[in-house]
């Protein structure tokens, strides 16, 4: 699966030394441009809330565009990769849906977050993977095939896992209608993704000509979601910004570290452990923002909006650090 947030590098291993291929340079440009775009959108929402706040009902449609673009970038190879290493993919899936929801609940408890913010942080943790994780795994010289497989499965299973986990962990803070949430995820995530896959299968020859534009269209949709979310709670953001940022940094940072540690603990090897780090620590923040807006409040969607910016910045930095720690010869051997 390709990231809904940024253009992706080609899947599969081995990967070339960082910075030596056009795809690598395109990926680096993507993880640089996307956070800037989202920051600009958030600033616009904060400065002109009246312009964007009224579009809250359009957030699910924007998410549908993102997921449809994701489906267009998928191929049968993405699904075959799951069958090749089912137990490793299952481990990545379990780590993702155990570590991040648990961390969200723990951070909300330790920081004594308000009910809306606590529910928002937990919802981010319960979201599937997929947001830029494939790109940064590629940049880190990690196991891109594993990253794609885990992202694929976590997204497909989101209707079954995200609602009950949110109910279990966030229900103490705000009422959670898990049944309605399942329906929303099916409509805004699974159906658009499947629709994109079908279109790719039927008209792949024509779709291939415009695939390069799909991730950038997704980036614009994510930026629009952030602008709407920030505008909807612009007043509250001024007093809660530091708290939300602290929660997001802790959530993302601990997820990256624990994901990598899980891979090393289970002896997956360095490339696969790097993939695990990003598949655990990076979330589909667009989905979290959409669900929070629809089921909780604009304030509850703030953690997802901030996460959308931060996890791209931290992911790029961690990937660069990992790539530099891998000598060229070792990188070729690991591939």
UniProtKB/TrEMBL annotation:
Lineage of the organism: Bacteria, Bacillati, Actinomycetota, Actinomycetes, Kitasatosporales
Residues annotated as transmembrane: 31-53, 59-76, 88-111, 117-137, 144-165, 185-203, 215-234, 240-263
InterPro entries per record: BilAc:Na_symport/Acr3, Bilac:Na_transpt, Na+/solute_symporter_sf
Name the record gives this protein: Bile acid:sodium symporter family protein
Keyword Cytoplasm: no
Alphabetized Gene3D superfamilies for the sequence: 1.20.1530.20
Compartments reported by the entry: Membrane
Keywords from the named record: Membrane, Transmembrane, Transmembrane helix
Topology relative to the membrane: Multi-pass membrane protein
Regions annotated as coiled coil: none
Region (Disordered): 1-24
Biased amino acid composition, Low complexity: 1-12
């Amino acid at each position: 699966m390709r990231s809904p947030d940024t253009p992706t590098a080609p899947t599969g291993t081995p990967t070339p030394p960082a910075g030596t291929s056009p795809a690598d340079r395109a990926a680096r440009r993507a993880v640089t441009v996307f956070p800037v775009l989202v920051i600009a959108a958030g600033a616009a929402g904060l400065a002109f809330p009246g312009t964007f706040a009224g579009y809250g009902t359009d957030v699910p449609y924007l998410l549908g565009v993102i997921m449809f673009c994701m489906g267009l970038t998928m191929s049968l190879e993405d699904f075959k990769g799951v069958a090749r290493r089912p137990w490793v993919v299952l481990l990545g899936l379990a780590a993702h849906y155990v570590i991040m929801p648990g961390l969200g609940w723990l951070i909300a408890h330790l920081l004594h977050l308000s009910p809306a913010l606590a529910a928002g942080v937990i919802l981010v943790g319960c979201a599937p993977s997929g947001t830029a994780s494939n790109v940064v795994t590629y940049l880190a010289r990690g196991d891109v095939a594993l990253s794609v497989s885990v992202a694929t499965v976590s997204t497909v299973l989101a209707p079954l896992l995200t609602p009950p986990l949110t109910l279990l962990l966030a229900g103490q803070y705000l009422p959670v209608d898990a049944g309605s949430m399942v329906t929303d995820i099916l409509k805004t995530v699974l159906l658009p993704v499947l629709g994109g896959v079908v279109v790719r299968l039927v008209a792949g020859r024509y779709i291939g000509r415009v695939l390069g534009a799909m991730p950038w269209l997704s980036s614009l949709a994510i930026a629009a979601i952030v602008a709407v979310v920030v505008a909807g709670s612009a007043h509250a953001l001024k007093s809660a910004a530091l708290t939300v940022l602290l929660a997001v940094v802790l959530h993302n940072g601990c997820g990256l570290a624990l994901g990598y540690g899980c891979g090393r603990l289970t002896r997956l090897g360095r490339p696969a452990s790097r993939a695990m780090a990003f598949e655990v620590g990076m979330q589909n923040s667009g989905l979290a923002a959409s669900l929070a807006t629809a089921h909780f409040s604009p304030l509850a969607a703030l953690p997802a909006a901030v996460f959308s910016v931060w996890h791209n910045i931290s992911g790029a930095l961690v990937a660069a650090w990992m790539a530099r720690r891998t000598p060229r010869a070792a990188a070729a051997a690991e591939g």
